[in-house]
Amino acid sequence: MSNIVNVSDPFYIDFPKRVSQIKEAMARQNIDVYLGSRLRTISWVSDTFCPWRSFIIIGHEGLPTVFTFVIDVARIADESWLGEDNVMGYAPMGGMEQISAISDYIKDQLNLKKGLIGIESGMSNYLPEGFLTQYEYEQFREALPDFEFVNSYDIIDRLSLIKDQGTINRFKEASRIVDIGHKAVYESIINSGYKDKTETEIAGIATYAMRKAGSEWEWSFTGGNEIASGYRTGLAGCACTPASRRKLQQGEPLMADLHAMFKLGLGDHSHNYFLGKATKRQRWHADNFLNIVKLSLKTYQTGSSPSIIAEEMMRFAEQEGFTEYLVPGFEHGIGMMGDEWRIGLNQGAIPYWTDPDHIYQEGELLICAVQYACPDEKIGFRYENPILIGKDGCEPLSKFPLKVEEIE
Amino acid sequence: MEESITYLSYEWRDAAEKKLREELTPEQMKFISTSMSSIYKNCADGKERYLYIKCEEGDLSEISVGEGESPQAEFKIIGNYDTFALITQAKLSSQKALMTGKLKLKGNMVKALKLASIADRLNRVLAKIPAKY
To answer: Which residues of A182-204 are buried (b: 16+ CB within 10 A; e: fewer)?
Structure first.
């Protein structure tokens, strides 16, 4: 994705420093080698998108080594700062499938015959998380019988919580690109342009504009650019709307949730429209939605927490009479590609989910998310925007104006 | 008719060196610098043997055979003596032996893939040596 070595580049990230921090944490926990398997770990260390099942091996000496499916090795070596000696392949060949290749590397290249291996084990609601599978774990244990295994994913989670400037700048650029996508969608639907267009076409228009502006991928596993129209905007709890072949129609809402990726930084902004003039009741729903989004953006700051935000939002919704239309959660986590959903560390009451009492700190990034849906009236809205937590507030990274515009 | 010599014997090594020097130019070897050890497990006498080949810029710089641990090499190919014997007699392809796990490769796989065609060329030359298995 980047291979940036110029420290004055705004998107530069000090990856050797990250590796040193991991090694220091390993030393504190007496870990001899870290066997990372989560997509977020591989992105955060190698600065490369690894779509095939991959692993990253970090010993106390030298650079980390990525192991990936052999057909993608050359590309990853070309894009990562690690270089070709530290990107290796596995394949269905004797001694070269992933378990043998990695365990031989630990024994022969790292010259370790016994010790403690840090692994990444757990669960996630996010499909591509990449925790070690039971089979992989058992096979590694068999291949490395003189090693102990310890769950150590928290090393990466802790280190990646507060974002450095290069990461923040990548997210800002991804959001700038998303805004270009929204502008393209807007221009395509005004002046009756929406007529005869389908949701998939709207997704394509956004994709084309964002790709033209440098986006590498519409990264979201919930369906790339998520587009919903009509009743699909109002499906209860609906936070997954891959574009369908449904035609846009007058009198209906349109939701465009666009995703761009820039050097593994992620843009994610959802914007909403009415196609035609909204009824008084539809406008009431839209204004409720806008008011609660504005309030949530005012509330995020250092010292706040997901539960504080949720209580405040639900209190406001109760007072205004629209609680029943809200999903009572107002954020999800975000980090370099593969780091999604859970906010902060795994230290809440429900393992591997966001800790409701996580205290936000300056420099954290998250997605402010508001989901408003009224299935009975076939209407709904979604707001998503990456926000950077500051001392006295937050900075929304997408700057597309917040409104629910009626497209005449 | 040439007299057969015992596969992996010192005589075979000398014949292999002569044949490789005669038939493979640095250009045909694509001027590569690498080293590889074939580790023969379960030889007829129960011992483990190796064949070590080193090239520098396409020139054969070292070839050795022996018992026990092989010299350090960039790549190691490990398998039973019988498997290697079948490959050398062209009764089994090295690719199939790898794909079925009869041979195991150790080393950087991507580099090994780049060298696969050269290794095949080398094996074809070695196969011409009349040998007793």
So the answer is: bebbbebbeeeebeebbbebbbb
Range of the domain at B53: 5-125
Asked if A90 is an interface residue toward chain B (Cβ–Cβ < 8 A), one would say: yes
Name the residue in chain B with its Cα closest to that of A101. Answer: B106
Does A228 reside within a domain? yes
CATH of the domain at A188: 3.90.230.10
Which tokens belong to B123? 């094996």
B97 touches chain A (CB under 8 A): yes
Q: Is residue B9 part of a domain?
A: yes
- Tell me the whole-structure pTM to 2 decimals: 0.91
How confident is the prediction for chain B on average, in pLDDT? 90
- Judge whether A199 lies within some domain: yes
Give how many domains chain B has, as a whole number: 1
Min CA distance, B102 vs chain A (Å)? 7
Condensed to tens digits (0 to 9), the pLDDT of residues A62-86 reads: 999 999 999 999 999 999 999 889 9
Task: Look up the ipTM and state it.
Answer: 0.78
Establish if A2 belongs to a structural domain: no
CB-based contact B98 A104, cutoff 8 Å:
no
The torsion angle over the Cα atoms of residues A330, A336, A338 and A342, rounded to 10 degrees, is -30
Chosen domain end from A124, A159, A194: A159
Beta bridge partners of A30: none
**Tally of domains in chain A:** 2
**CATH code (residue B83):** 3.30.1050.10
Cβ pair B113:A88 closer than 8 A: no
Supply the range of the domain harboring residue A42: 15-159
H or E stretch including A260? Answer: strand A252-262
Q: What is the pLDDT of residues A371-384, one digit of tens each?
A: 999 999 999 999 99
Token pair in block for residue B10 = 């010192």
pLDDT, tens only, A267-307: 999 999 999 999 999 999 999 999 999 999 999 999 999 99
Residue B133 inside a domain? The answer is no
CB contact under 8 A, B98 and A96: yes
Q: Is A73 on the interface with B (CB under 8 A)?
A: yes
Contacts of B99 in chain A (CB under 8 A): 92-94
**What are the backbone angles phi and psi of residue A62, rounded to the nearest 5°?**
75, -170
Domain co-membership, A222 together with A148: no
Name the residue type at position A93: M
Residue A339 and residue A225 in one domain: yes
Q: Which of A85, A96, A102, A103 to mutate to test the interface with B (most CBs of B within 10 A)?
A: A96
Q: What is the pLDDT confidence band of residue B112, given thresholds at 50, 70 and 90? A: confident
Residue A219 inside a domain? The answer is yes
Find chain A residues with C-beta within 8 A of B98's C-beta: 93-94, 96
Strand partners, A68: A89
